[in-house]
Specification:
By secondary structure, the protein is mainly beta. It has helices at about 70, 95-100, and strands spanning about 5-15, 20-25, 35-40, 45-55, 60, 80, 100-105, 110-120, 125-130, 135-140, 145-150, 150-155. The strands form two sheets. Strands 3-4-5-2-1-6 form a six-stranded antiparallel β-sheet. A six-stranded mixed β-sheet has the order 10-9-8-7-12-11, with no helix packed on it.
């Protein structure tokens, strides 16, 4: 399990006080509301202290970068968060922890392959599964019956599905 996970990308400055537009790759910016540091590397060695995170504007200001010119130096950079700074509700997992899990048919128990990718779709996330066949499954309760990083992903498959 990786400790530091991608949070998003810093975009162009907004205004004069170091505010940066933030393309958040989490469910939404509010997910990061309690995070004190974001990092410029995936090892957590280059911290940026969050001065202010504006959820409604999807912008961020960092300590030491409180003017437009210094903030502009961060434009285009990917930032990471420390998973230890986030408390997830029971039964909720980081997508990063699910990639690579075995996928099983919830009815028969047959192994169907591995979860290779999770992509954000219009109505829900999409789970990409590769095994003897390839599947793209909407991550909704109708199909995803259980997810457990220890046991795998259990899905209700539709007869004839897969390529």
């Amino acid at each position: 399990m990786r400790r530091f996970l991608e949070a998003g990308r810093l975009n162009s400055p907004r205004g004069l006080k170091g505010e940066l537009r933030f393309d958040c790759w989490c469910d939404d910016v509010a997910f990061l509301s309690g995070v004190r540091y974001l990092y410029l590397d995936s090892e957590g060695k280059r911290p940026l202290e969050v001065k202010e995170l504006r959820e409604h504007l999807s912008t961020v200001i960092f300590v030491g970068y409180e003017d437009r010119l210094s903030a502009a130096a961060l434009t285009g950079r990917t930032v990471w968060f420390d998973r230890n700074d986030i408390t997830l509700p029971d039964g909720v997992f980081f997508n990063d922890d699910l990639i690579g899990l075995k996928v099983f048919d919830a009815v028969s128990g047959e192994e169907k392959g591995r979860l290779t990718k999770i992509e954000q779709g219009v109505a829900s996330d999409l789970y990409y599964i590769e095994g003897e066949k390839k599947y793209i499954i909407p991550a909704v309760g109708e199909f995803i019956k259980s997810v457990d990083p220890e046991k795998g992903v259990f899905i209700r498959f539709i007869d004839g599905a897969g390529e």
